[in-house]
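Regression test case RT-17, inverse folding.

Input:
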């Protein structure tokens, strides 16, 4: 790779929509990047890094959530509200930012970005990603409703 030129020596003409340029410019200004070209280079580096790590991170977070559940090893009776087991479960399942939510967010990222790797055209990728996001959010809302119902039932049983 000794022949590889520094990034500013290679010109890559690219066509973008007004919306895409607007999003890049907004990101550029929010992050105080001097030029649009530099912003695009940085966004490409970020995307390549995330793409490389996403599946592994999702797998690791899922395993961590499962490990916590194994440690608590819930029986038919929920743990008392003042126990470490309950606090641990609350941290895992908390809708405000628990481990399960983080796994869900990463799953959404993986599901929505996958078409950009595999679809035959950008337009097909955009359409497929939009469909996948809607499906994923629907499944996630169903799962969150089930988790909330289970948590509410557990709190009710604990108070008795």
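Golden output:
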């Amino acid at each position: 790779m000794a022949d590889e030129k520094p990034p500013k020596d290679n010109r890559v003409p690219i066509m973008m929509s007004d919306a895409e340029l607007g999003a890049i410019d907004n990101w550029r200004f929010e992050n105080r990047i001097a030029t649009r070209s530099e912003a695009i280079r940085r966004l490409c580096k970020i995307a390549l890094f995330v793409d490389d790590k996403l599946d592994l991170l999702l797998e690791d977070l899922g395993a961590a959530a499962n490990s916590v559940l194994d440690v608590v090893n819930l029986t038919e009776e929920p743990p008392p509200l003042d126990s470490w087991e309950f606090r641990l479960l609350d941290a895992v399942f908390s809708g405000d930012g628990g481990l399960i939510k983080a796994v869900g967010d990463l799953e959404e990222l993986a599901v929505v970005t996958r078409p950009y790797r595999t679809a035959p055209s950008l337009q097909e990728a955009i359409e497929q990603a939009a469909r996948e996001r809607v499906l994923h959010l629907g499944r996630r809302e169903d799962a969150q409703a089930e988790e909330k119902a289970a948590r509410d039932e557990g709190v009710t049983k604990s108070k008795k």
